[in-house]
Design goal:
Elements lengths: L2 H22 L9 E4 L4 H10 L11 H4 L6 H11 L8 E8 L3 E8 L1
Parallel strand pairs: 1-2
Antiparallel strand pairs: 2-3
Helix pairs in contact: 1-2
Length: 111
C-alpha cells in the first residue's frame, strides 16, 4: 500500500464523515465533548484532532496500549473512556472509523 495515500485518504474521510454527521444533526465541532476515532494510527488521530481544533481532553486514544484492534477498536476505546470518567452525562460523543477496503463511518451520540 502507498502509506501517504492511505494517510491522506484516511484523514480526509475522517473529517468528512464527522462533519457530515454534525451537519445532519445541526451541530458544530465546537459542541464535541469527546472524539473517539478508530485506533489504527496515532498520527491520523492527531491530525484530525488538530484540524477540528480539539484539545487533548477532547480526544481519546489507546492505540499505544493495544495497537490496532481492527473492528473492536472504537468500542474498546469507548468503554475505556467511560471507565476512566472521561465521558459524563449529556456529553456529545463522536465515534469515527476508517477501515480496510476504504470503508468509513461515524456516529454522534448524546451520552
Amino acid at each position: 500500500m502507498n502509506g501517504n495515500a492511505v494517510f491522506n485518504n484516511a484523514v480526509g474521510k475522517f473529517m468528512e464523515v464527522i462533519q457530515k454527521a454534525l451537519t445532519a444533526s445541526s451541530m458544530s465541532k465546537e459542541e464535541i465533548d469527546l472524539l473517539i476515532p478508530h485506533q489504527a494510527n496515532l498520527r491520523i488521530s492527531q491530525f484530525v484532532q488538530r484540524k477540528f481544533k480539539l484539545t487533548d481532553d477532547q480526544i481519546f486514544n489507546n492505540i499505544m496500549k493495544y495497537g490496532n484492534t481492527t473492528a473492536a477498536s472504537v468500542i474498546i476505546a469507548l468503554t475505556e473512556a467511560w471507565e476512566q470518567g472521561k465521558i459524563k452525562d449529556n456529553d456529545l460523543v463522536v465515534l469515527a472509523a476508517f477501515g480496510s477496503g476504504f470503508t468509513w463511518g461515524s456516529v454522534i451520540m448524546r451520552w
